């Protein structure tokens, strides 16, 4: 059984469930939008890390540097697209 | 063929390790693809026209079920790869099957959710908000559907051939894909549903 | 749908085109059958996974598209040559400038660049093929399916007519009710998927398949430029994928993304289009920088000045290229803050670009310069491109841009960037690497004649447009009155465009003549060049290198020729090569029909074709193809035959 359910996988799973519950708190507790968004951003980012490192084994294999660069570049372009679009389409008119 | 026996089977040939690397690159492109869909959604989310808003149509119950199913399936596909690395064929197949069934369950709940929306008069054509919602969720759902077909095919191949350079490599790549879909769902869960209900 | 809605009718020019399409198709089919070449075509070309042949097919397609797009350009110039001209009506003119733009950028510049990367990159890094040869063939056939789908639009259903940028609401079903913009969204989508796969393939190739000893900082500059280009492709094309999908949903399924009511936001299209569109400009320009770097270094007989700064400037350009897109719509009405931010990022791009210009000049400095045809294009590029760049900085200033926006000044600017940048570069690269592929050089005298005709005519065509723009002539006007005073400069530009056409005809004649009469090159290194691709035979054998080279520094072949460490020390061993496959071309054909049915919203056949695509994917998943091995004896025979020895 131990071989089939290695500890770090089980921990990762439990951790991701806990993080989902933490994120859920924004719906049930009264809080300002800024605090709510911060909780969502932090919990989602940690969840992504759990998947990348514990489940997807991004840090194994011989091309670690290239893989990190790849993900970093993708996140850079993704964030620029999201926030740049919000800037030019919505915030820029205020 | 040069084989490096210190590595897990799925990395062992040069071709295999190139494929895994190439798939990571593809996932980089997928990150940008979903980011763009999020950019569209976040730009249009309060442009509801005459249609309902997210607060009016979102229900937390089905969303929690979906989240639980997908998180668990991401866990089980991880276990499948873990068993594969130890050469347990039967356990791998069982975990694969559980993963795909959970994925199927997710898809079923999502389709029911879509049907409910449409019954409430919230369709793709109603408003910019709903268009962006349906296309964002639909793109993720289409990825899950493709994953189900792909995973089913892989199960057949593992059953037939056991763990070879080919099947181990394909299974590992499939697991990357599946974990990635889980990550995307976390962001949908947080920034579509929870933000909408906040 | 009636037949006269399906085919475009009522235009003599279109009837002529229909007849010529039918005649050309028949001629090809009859010719192939008569000369019994079907089997050859299938075995050697349609099913090939060899990067060199795929490269050649890309380049041939690009040349064909150059002529299609060129005819569009000539028609536009003919219409504008004199005031109140009646050659084309407004609708026809709209379709022509739309297809001219789309074809030149996506179906000419991109495939030409990708064709050269296919041919050159594996050779420059000492690899036997790309990382995923089968995927490479899929990329080509998806590009080709998209290109053909886009091209049939002008006889079947009507071409898109909302500009190559397809701005909403003009491109919406309300204002463009024909299927034209359906073609746009679907043909570009199919070709775009192919391009994305090329990006993945070449990053993996360059990062994972280099010959031993070739560290990143020993890579030839063209390979570096391709690596950076592919990174931009990888992260920019998904944005286009989404934008085109949303366009398709709006036009075919009634969604409300870019509509004028129900919360839709028409400018969101422009935003998404340029989030992809600006990086796209760098996708076609960076490889050009790489090509020029190789050529200038070779024909100055010096190593490239400032190698590291060249690399870093490209990396900086690739990042900056993602943060400047809003400069394409300064006049949209967002506030000073947004325009200010994007003005600054845009002007910042001029810095790394300027670094490159100076590096080329310093490479030339004190070099023993040889004026070959590729070198002439490279030398002409530097000043002409600088004019394009400087006018770009003028446009980058948001407040000044209100004056230039959407005028002929802008048209002149981007032609001054793209033609000496990309077009001159691909022609120069074509002349430069042609002997590697075919084993002989193109005739230099004819090449130089074509060069001078093209370079001079280019300036005659596009320089007047700067002044027309400053006088207030807007782009995309299908005619103008005499009282505007635009007549004389327009006439000069139109005369120049005829010169350009003559130049390209000379170029084609140059190729034809050289195929028949040019002396064969047996050295494999006709230019006395520096990088690895010149160290193997011309034409290159299918396995590229009999022995994998060992690299000890920058410009390893040059160093080896000068008495440095030898490149080839190992013994010949059997070589593993991938097998040919018919699946990519079949997948391309299915995608073509899938796209065609989608354009006309014929759902049942579209679903059938869609299932066909899934079946092809499944077939590939269940296939086990581990390639083949070329035995040592066969390699030895090929090698001695290529050295010109009697076997």
Name of the CATH homologous superfamily of the largest domain in chain C:
Cytochrome c oxidase-like, subunit I domain
Gap between N and C termini of chain A: 59 Å
CA gyration radius of chain C, whole angstroms:
25 Å
Strand content of chain A: under 5%
Give the total of beta strands of chain C. Answer: 2
Please report the total strand number of chain A as a whole number.
0
Strand percentage of chain C, roughly? Answer: under 5%
Name the poorly predicted regions of chain C.
none
The count of domains of chain C is 2
Mean pLDDT of chain A: 89
Report the structural category of chain C: mainly alpha
Question: What is the overall silhouette of chain A?
Answer: flat
- Main β-sheet of chain A: number of strands, strand sense, barrel status? none
* Averaged pLDDT of chain C: 93
Helix-strand string of chain C: HHHHHHHHHHHHHHHHHEHHEH
Q: Which structural class should the secondary elements of chain A be placed in?
A: mainly alpha
Question: What's the helix count of chain A?
Answer: 3
Oligomer: heterotrimer
Keywords (chain B): Cell membrane, Membrane, Oxidoreductase, Transmembrane, Transmembrane helix
EC number (chain B): 1.10.3.-
Subcellular location (chain B): Cell membrane
Membrane topology (chain B): Multi-pass membrane protein
Give a structural overview:
- The complex is a heterotrimer of chains A (94), B (198) and C (647).
- Chain A is mostly helical and 94 residues long.
- Chain A contains 3 helices and no strands.
- In chain A, helix 1 packs antiparallel against helix 2.
- The longest helix of chain A is centred in the C-terminal third of the chain and has 26 residues.
- Chain A is flat.
- Chain A starts with 6 loop residues before the first helix and ends in a 5-residue tail after the last helix.
- The model of chain A has no long low-confidence stretch (mean pLDDT 89).
- The mean pLDDT of chain B is 93.
- Chain B has one domain: Cytochrome c oxidase, subunit III, four-helix bundle (Four Helix Bundle (Hemerythrin (Met), subunit A), Up-down Bundle), CATH 1.20.120.
- Chain C has 2 domains: 36 residues; 563 residues, Cytochrome C Oxidase, Chain A (Up-down Bundle).
- Chain C is globular and about 70 Å long.
- By secondary structure, chain C is mainly alpha-helical.
- Helix content of chain C is 67%, strand content 1%.
- In chain C, helix 4 runs antiparallel to helix 5.
- Classes of the chains: A mainly alpha (94), B mainly alpha (198), C mainly alpha (647).
- Chains A and B meet through helix 1, helix 2 and helix 3 of A and helix 1, helix 3 and helix 6 of B.
